[in-house]
């Protein structure tokens, strides 16, 4: 019966989202797929040009299966669900008193009741220290933030007994929602200015000393999660991190930090499967969305990204580790004013593979490295060229249009000497300089694939067919992923 109930909820939620979704801040919207005639005149898009419409081409694999929101309307009915207001448990909400104990007591009470709502009401600013909200809890628990939550202000105010690597942790939960109309404020500025951070010294140098900075929100070993509606900003490090999770639905989120805030990834996934990220706006000092090892079935749609470091798969294969990532789709999105656009990055010496990756209907606006595969990723000059590599296979770029920063070629495929990138597909790729002259020399190294249409700028370095070297063919065919 439980399987049937969830199947019905998924079907109902998907129908309601397609029929009743409305704009939020001008770029939150769902797209219905329509057949369009391929091809369009090549011209530099205006600054506020819409994301290209989906030409609905065939895909080489089935799209990922991701969960739908089990709460398509409100996160509960206040008249029937039990509401646990943190102010009733002693929360002051003045931004200076420590409200941690009140949140822990409210969580303990709400966790024990089905369809409960832990409510942080509007009009208050709650300061809480590093806390783990653990389960298992009764089903359909909602953590509703309508006010403002924030951690202590900087490393000097951080309790010495607390972990400096994480702030709010949700652990071993199933069927839980984090939502609300409020703000989660990270107070990250003093963390960004630690002497160890890369922007503190000349030419990216750093100073020795403690460098741990807390991820703002972490979901760990949890399933059937919904995160919606919140504004999350100024995180000391990653804004949201999902480790070892299954079934994640993220929608209508606003995530923001300054362009030069270090390591402030918007959403980071690791060993996490069946994820949907929709209708969200992310601007920060690192990747908007980063997808680490062990991830599969990730669907990203209608995301506005930048300024940032773009949307990244990786880095993968560090310290000769095996890494597998598969069945990732990014579509109907915009990347603007970013150091990178769509990036796959792996370390030399790794093993495993990245496969079945689809980038489709992406608008670029003044982006460096619009399309980049970098199998020589390294954080220092000490990295050596190694034989082993994470195999990159079956990557498609369809309807990628817009403008690029001429300081870097817009297309850069740097693949391993011994394990070639294979089955790269290009179609309707039209990238023009944001300002300056056309860069007509995209870079490829040991990259094999097909061009369904001519690209702008032309890319003549992509090799056709398969690697001819017998050893390279053997290494390439050995790729396997268990995710």
UniProtKB/TrEMBL annotation:
A Pfam family of this chain: Glyco_hydro_28
GO molecular function term, any single one: polygalacturonase activity
Transmembrane segments: none
GO BP terms, alphabetized: carbohydrate metabolic process; cell wall organization
Positions annotated as active site in the UniProt record: 309
Signal peptide stretch: 1-26
Region spans: Disordered: 30-82
Subcellular localization(s) per the UniProt record: Secreted, Cell wall
UniProt feature, compositional bias: Pro residues: 43-73
Keywords on record: Cell wall, Cell wall biogenesis/degradation, Glycosidase, Hydrolase, Secreted, Signal
PROSITE patterns assigned: POLYGALACTURONASE
Domain of life: Eukaryota
Similarity-based family: Belongs to the glycosyl hydrolase 28 family.
Listed name of the protein: Polygalacturonase
